[in-house]
Design brief:
The complex is a heterodimer of chains A (393) and B (238). Chain A is an all-alpha fold and 393 residues long. In chain A, 71% of the residues lie in helices and 1% in strands. With 238 residues, chain B is of the alpha+beta class. In chain B, the strands form four sheets. Chain B has a four-stranded mixed β-sheet. The chains are: A mainly alpha (393), B alpha+beta (238). Chains A and B meet through helix 6, helix 7 and strand 1 of A and strand 2, helix 3, helix 4 and strand 6 of B. Strand 1 of chain A pairs antiparallel with strand 2 of chain B, so a sheet runs across the interface.
Chain lengths: 393, 238
């Protein structure tokens, strides 16, 4: 037997995790340096697939950062004690993922050195410009919200701050959906359904990330989550997963009904190679059906099942975003309706895309930033949910 | 002469010298950049009428001229810039084939300008849609928004630039309607190079211009007219 107390190993594990996260973040920075040096030619992105894997990572993190605040809103806005106890952890996760997602988005720019230009020159008709305000405002608002919760003297302000965050995050996710909804000519986008779809997706993805973190946090602190609380939260995850599947189904069904969209839907759902595979296996089966079984199947639904379900929901999210963002660009733009087109610039052809290692390094770098922020904060501050002896609501 | 007067004279002399030193490089650079003192007129709307019946399949002269004029490599890999491209289209129901050049359509209501977060994408009052290379942050949202795939992103460092057409790695670019030539009273390179004179360039706002007269007399269409963007480039025989 070792002479060291258990705490010793935990400390070492903590620093090892931190070092691992730091290394991944560093690798991301190195990828950015190379992209800066050589240009985007070293990525898999090109003039047809202009947004690639970094955008999949960034949009996942930004959408989940908004959705995870659902936990906080149910506590602060609807006054549920069970969720109130979890609001600080939810806020922390939101800040961490927002930071990670925005970092990826900014560092993927062709000229990240000009980020100050985005802050000083604003085109009011651009939803990207609105998002600059929405994302930074969200960050500031969540910091204030967290402060009202963690500073005892500020506690009376928690409810108004919670309300503000509640409203802001709806607008923020609407803004994220609008990035695509405003694209007039692309078959995959330009639908008013996208903002509400992103909001419902954010609920499921955010809660899944919350479950993962909460389970690890409880295990780290040698605590067991009250089964009654587990039961309620797992049911909520189930409802959100069903809700998001419904929104995605309606989005494809409406497209399927429009004659000019049938080709695109066929591509995404039937004969588009990697995209239908990722959609059906990655998103529908792994990201929805298996998690639902793990949650609702009689005899399942215990802590480990919910942990696994959450992990699969996150993986499914990446699959869906890959299909949505990259598949949506791969299908040729219909510039001449009723005609077949060919050119040297990919007209009428399915665009090919093979992501490079640097894109993944940047994406995982963003995740690492979120991981480091969460890990360090959870260690130095008290983010462990403190439940009352009896759950009254 | 009093002391005070001398000091005043010296002060004027120094000020004049400093002002000259400050302004001279500006004047010099303005001259080098072929700058014009008068602003662009909003009374003009530059546009093109492309007669597809005169556009030969396999002819690439407009593309070559554009590449040469604007210092593009002429490469056609997925990461190379193509400001103008030849598109061969075939009507699915009839099999009728048409060959045409496709480039920025210089919309009256350009989606690229609407979505650009920094205002780098902008439309001049004379209808030419451009990218301000100093404001573009390389987000590529305009490329997502353009219904004509008219824009390219500079994926690599660029060399051999034409001083009149600055380009830069990490920014988005597209057909400028050869704005540097138009401002000097010349035609865009593609229009000038077409062996069949299939590209007619001119002022759409002037009812007496050749392009306006032709648009009145022949049937022409805007590509994706259903989007309501009112393009500056029209096609005949499509």
């Amino acid at each position: 037997m070792s002479a060291h107390p258990p705490m010793y190993f935990k400390n070492r594990l903590y620093y090892m995790l931190l070092a691992a996260g730091g290394l991944v973040a560093l690798a991301g920075m190195y990828a950015v340096h190379l992209m800066e040096d050589h240009g985007h030619v070293i990525t898999g992105m090109n003039n047809q697939i202009v947004w690639g894997v970094p955008h999949v990572f960034a949009i996942f993190m930004i959408v989940a950062a908004s959705g995870v605040l659902n936990v906080a809103s149910i506590g602060s806005v609807f006054g549920k004690a069970l969720y109130k106890a979890r609001a600080p952890l939810a806020s922390l996760l939101s800040l961490a993922m927002l930071a990670g997602g925005l970092m990826v988005l900014m560092l993927d720019l062709g000229r990240p050195d000009r980020i100050i230009v985005a802050a000083t020159n604003t085109n009011l008709t651009s939803v990207f410009a609105w998002n600059v305000v929405l994302y930074s405002g969200m960050f500031a608002l969540v910091v204030v919200y967290l402060w009202t919760m963690m500073e005892r003297r500020m506690n009376p302000m928690t409810k108004p701050a919670g309300f503000a965050v509640f409203a802001w995050r709806f607008i923020l996710t609407t803004g994220t959906g609008l990035i695509f909804a405003f694209l007039t000519a692309r078959q995959a986008y330009g639908s008013a359904l996208l903002p509400p779809m992103f909001i419902v997706l954010s609920f499921a993805w955010g809660l899944a990330v919350f479950h993962l973190t909460q389970t690890i946090l409880y295990a780290w602190n040698d605590k067991a989550l009250d089964p009654a609380i587990m039961q309620r939260k797992r049911n909520l995850l189930g409802v959100f997963v069903v809700g998001s599947l419904y929104m995605v189904a309606v989005y494809h069904l409406t497209n399927l009904y429009f004659a000019q969209q049938v080709g695109f839907v066929r591509f995404i759902l039937v004969d588009g190679g990697i995209y239908p595979n990722l959609f059906w296996w990655g998103y529908v089966v792994i990201g929805n059906l298996v998690p639902l079984a793990l949650i609702y199947w009689p005899g399942l639904g215990r802590t480990r099942c919910v942990f696994a379900a959450s992990l699969l929901v996150v993986l499914g999210a990446f699959a869906l975003l890959y299909v949505f963002i990259i598949g949506g660009q791969a299908y040729p733009l219909n510039i001449f309706p009723g005609h077949e087109a060919t050119s040297s610039f990919g007209d009428g052809q399915i665009a090919s895309y093979s992501p490079s290692i640097y894109e993944f390094m940047l994406g995982f770098g963003g995740l690492a930033i979120a991981f480091i922020t969460t890990t360090v904060s959870a260690r130095v501050l008290d983010f462990m949910p403190q439940d009352k002896p009896h759950v009254t609501d | 002469m009093s002391d005070i007067d001398l000091r005043r004279r010296n002060f004027f002399k120094t000020s004049l010298g400093a002002a000259a030193v400050a302004i001279a490089p500006g004047i010099l650079l303005f001259d080098i950049a072929h700058g014009k003192p008068q602003a662009v007129s909003g009374k003009v709307r530059w546009g093109m009428l492309i007669d597809t019946t005169q556009c030969r399949e396999g002819c690439n002269d407009c593309v070559t001229a554009c590449n040469k004029e604007n210092g593009l490599s002429g490469g056609t890999s997925a990461t190379d810039s193509q400001w103008i491209r030849k598109v061969e289209i075939k009507e699915i129901s009839t099999g009728r084939k048409v060959s045409l050049p496709m480039m920025c359509q210089h919309c009256e209501k350009p989606p690229c300008v609407d979505v650009c977060p920094t205002g780098a994408s902008f439309k001049r009052v004379d209808g030419i849609v451009l990218v301000d290379r100093h404001l573009c942050i390389g987000c590529r949202y305009c490329m997502m928004a353009c219904p004509y795939k008219a824009r390219s992103f500079v994926h690599e460092p660029v060399t051999g630039q034409n001083p009149d057409v600055p380009r830069g790695k990490g920014t988005v670019e597209s057909c400028t309607l050869c704005v540097h030539r138009v401002d000097n009273g010349q035609q865009p390179a593609c229009a000038e190079s077409c062996p069949n004179k299939a590209i007619l360039f001119g002022d759409l706002n002037d009812p007496e211009s050749e392009i306006s007269r032709k648009i009145r007399s022949v049937a022409s269409v805007q590509v994706r007219a259903d989007l309501g963007l009112n393009t500056g480039v029209r096609y005949q025989g499509l």
